[in-house]
Amino acid sequence: VQLVESGGGLVQAGGSLRLSCVASGFTFSNYLMSWYRQAPGQERELVAFIDSAGGVTNYVDSVKGRFTISRDNAKNTVYLQMNSLRAEDTAVYYCKVRIPRLGVRNDYWGQGTQVTVSS
């Protein structure tokens, strides 16, 4: 299983970024995908998730109305469109997939992509 994020960078407050996570090593279209973030000194938090077909999404309250998660199962890719960015969105963003095997819920993470929002 491999997850590779990209698209992070430095942006001014109010700006936008689109993160991508390309997956390999498993049947992407079978699994729910999630985006997490971790700011310095803070715990990693769930930002958004999307079901396997892309029909169900959910967001943490702080990003509702600003972020959109989507996926393209033909490209094995999940996206996070981030608009109206704020300084408090600054964090390393990770994608994650949970693949149960033999009764164990295995979590796989990407390496992360840094998002920095200047105020």
Report on this structure.
By secondary structure, this protein is mostly beta strands. It contains no helices and eleven strands. Strands 2, 4, 5, 6, 9, 10 and 11 form a seven-stranded mixed β-sheet that branches. A four-stranded antiparallel β-sheet has the order 1-3-8-7, with no helix packed on it.
As a percent range, the share of strand residues is over 45%
Task: Please describe the biggest sheet, giving its number of strands, its sense, and whether it closes into a barrel.
Answer: 7 strands, mixed
Give the beta-strand count. Answer: 11
Order of helices and strands: EEEEEEEEEEE
Q: Tell me, what's the shape?
A: globular
Give the topology.
Elements: E1 2-6, E2 9-12, E3 17-24, E4 33-38, E5 45-50, E6 57-59, E7 67-72, E8 77-82, E9 91-101, E10 104-109, E11 113-118
Parallel strand pairs: 2-11
Antiparallel strand pairs: 1-3, 3-8, 4-5, 4-9, 5-6, 7-8, 9-10, 9-11
Short description:
The chain has 119 residues and is mostly beta strands.
Question: Main attributes?
Answer:
single chain, 119 residues, mainly beta, seven-stranded mixed sheet, four-stranded antiparallel sheet, 11 strands
